[in-house]
Amino acid sequence: MEMRNWFGRSVCVLLLWAGLASAQTFTVLTSLSQIAPPGGGGNLVWTLVQGFDGNFYGTTQGGGGTCANNPFATCGVVFKVTPTGTLTTLYDFCQNNCTDGGAPFSGLSLSPSGHFYGTTTTGGTSHNGALYEITPAGKLTTLHSFTGANAEGIPYGPVVEANGAFYGATGLGGASGYGTIYKVTPTGTLTTVHTFSGTDGEQVGLEAEGLLEAPNGDFYGVTAYGTLGSNGCGTIFKMTSKGALKTLYSFDSSSAEGCGPFDGLVQAPNGDFYGTTVGGGTANDGTIFKMTPNGTLTSLYNFCSQSNCADGSMPNAGMILGTDGNFYGTTIYGGATNQGTIFQITPGGTYKALYSFCSQASCADGIFSYSRLIQATDGNFYGTTSAGGGGNNGGTAFKLSMGLAPFVQTLPASSKVGSQVKILGTDLTGATSVTFDGTAATFKVDGRTLIVATVPVGARTGKVRVKTPKGTLVSNIAFRVLP
Q: Reduced to 3 states, what is the DSSP secondary structure of residue 14?
C-alpha cells in the first residue's frame, strides 16, 4: 500500500471550526520544535504515557541534540512534558554505531516499578535496534540488542510487560523475514515465541505494531500486511504466552473491510475488540471495525465518507476507550484543513469528528498525528502531532478536554491478595480510604499523584475507589484479583 507524502502538503490557512461543543477544549501544551531536526523533517512523534509523577513522557524518531545539525539524521529523543507544558529532553539517542540505540518507532511503556521501557530501530551492539529501560530522571540502560533481518528482526513496536517479561513484535525477523513475536526477561534474555510465515500475516518494518494482553492472559494483535494466501491486507490474531498463535481474521486483498490494521487493538468491557485500518474501505481512506472474540468482524465506519474528507482520512494509530464508554482516535489527513483530525466513535458506530488540526494560525496546533491518544487521570485526552507547531516544524503535544471526570488508574491492572499495587491519580493528597470492590485496603499516599496500596484479604474483582477531600475517585477499569 502506498503511503502519501505527509510532509508534501500545502500550507494550511487559518480556519474556525464551528462544530466545537461547549464541553470540548483543545489546548497546545507545547511545541516540540526545540527537539526536532532542522526543518522538522523526520520528526515522527509517538504516543505519550503518564508517569507516577503526573508528567507525560514520550519519544521522537528524529531530532535531538546529537543530530542537531543534520536535517536527515534519525537519532531521536526521550522527552518529558508537564501538564502545564514545560518540555524537557531526558535522553538524546545517536545515529549509526550507537550501542544505546536510535530512531524509536514507538512510545514508552510504564512499569509498576515506575521506570519506562521502549525500543529503537537502529543502534545496539548489532546495530539493528534495542530494548531499553529509562528512569524518569533519564538514566538509560540497554536490556537487549536485536540481531536484525532474518534473525531476531527489528523492534518497530512497543513492549507490554506480562508474566515477568516484556513482549513485543519485530519486523523483518525470522527465517523468512516476515517478523516475530518475542519476549525478553528483565536481564535481557530474548526468546522468540512465534515466527510469522506469511500465511498468518507479515510484520513488516516501519509499522509500530503492539500487543494487547487480555484479561484471560492471551495476547491479541495485528499484522499490517500478509504476503501469502488471501490475507494481503493484514490479519488479526490471538496468541498464548507460550506462542500458540491463531489467526482470527484476515483482511482480504479487496480491502472492502479495510487494509492495514496498524497499531493494534483495544478491548471493550463486553470482550469485543475495536481497531482501525489505514487504508481500504469504500473510499480507500481507512476504516473502523469491531471484532468479537471468536473472529466475527463488523465494519463500523468508512473514513472520507463526508465531502472533502471532512470526517478524516487514514488513521495511522489505533484507538483508546474513554471513561465515557466511547472510543477516541486520530487521523493523519482529512478534516477541515486536510491535516488530520481527532475523532470519537460510539461502540455502535456513531462517528463524530471532534477537532481539525491546523485550525490555528500557521498550524500552531500541529498537523499529522501518527500516535494514539491517552486519557490521563485528570480525565483529559493527550496526544502528539509530528509536524506544524511553528518554529522548526517539529510537532506539538496537546490536550483535548471533553469534560470527563478525573479517575484513578491501577498498575498493574491485576494482582494477587497481599501484593502491592500502585494507584495513579491527579490530586490524591489527603486521601482517607482505598477500597477494592468495597473491601478496605491499607495504603500510603506517596505524593499528590501516587498511592501505594496492598490488595486486601477478601478483595474481589471490581473497581478501586479512593476517597479524597475533594470527592471519591473511581478506577477507569475493574481491577482483577488473581487466584
A: coil
353 and 343 Cβ atoms separated by less than 8 Å: yes
pLDDT at 22: 42
- SS3 state at 29: strand
Considering the entire predicted model, what is its pTM?
Answer: 0.93
Distance CA 53, CA 51 (A): 5
How deeply is 22 buried, as exposed, middle or buried, from its count of CB atoms within 10 A (0-12, 13-18, 19+)? exposed
| 418 within some domain | yes
* Residues facing 162 on adjacent strands: 165
CA atoms within 13 A of residue 177's CA, in its CB half-sphere: 4
pLDDT, one tens digit per residue, over 105-119 is 999 999 999 999 999
Mean pLDDT of 461-470: 97
Backbone angles phi, psi at 471, to 5 degrees: 135, 180
pLDDT digits (tens, 9 = 90+) for 389-448: 987 889 999 999 999 999 999 999 999 999 999 999 999 999 999 999 999 999 999 999
- Residue owning grid cell 469534560: 403
**Coil, strand or helix: which one is 363?**
helix
What is the rounded CA–CA span in Å between residue 470 and residue 429? 10
Q: What is the CATH number for 438?
A: 2.60.40.10
The total domain count for the chain is 1
Edge-to-edge, what's the strand order for the sheet holding 374-375?
Answer: 25-31, 396-401, 381-385, 374-375
Q: How far apart are CA 290 and CA 275, in angstroms?
A: 6
> What would you report as the CA-atom Rg of the chain, rounded to the nearest whole angstrom?
21
Query: What letter represents residue 148's amino acid?
Result: G
pLDDT for residue 94? 80
Evaluate whether residue 328 is within a structural domain: no
Q: Place 213 in a pLDDT band, splitting at 50, 70 and 90.
A: very high
Distance from C-alpha of 202 to C-alpha of 195, rounded to nearest angstrom:
10
Q: Which domain holds residue 446?
A: 409-482
For residue 105, which amino acid is it? F
Indicate if the alpha-carbon torsion angle 160, 162, 166, 167 is positive or negative: negative
pLDDT band at 8 (very low <50, low <70, confident <90, very high): very low
How are the residues of the chain apportioned to helix, strand and coil, as percentages rounded to the nearest 5? 0, 40, 60
Q: Distance (Å, rounded) from C-alpha 57 to C-alpha 46?
A: 10
C-alpha cell, 304 = 472520507
The pLDDT value given to residue 252? 86
Let me know if residue 462 belongs to a domain: yes
3-class secondary-structure state, position 467:
strand
Q: How far apart are CA 390 and CA 358, in angstroms?
A: 11
Task: Say how far apart CA 347 and CA 333 lie, in whole Å.
Answer: 23
Cell (9 digits) for 314: 487514514
Report the helix count and the strand count for the chain, using DSSP H and E: 0, 38
pLDDT of residue 21: 39
> β-pairing, 381-385 with 351-356?
unpaired
Planar angle of CA 328, 330, 331, nearest 5 degrees: 145
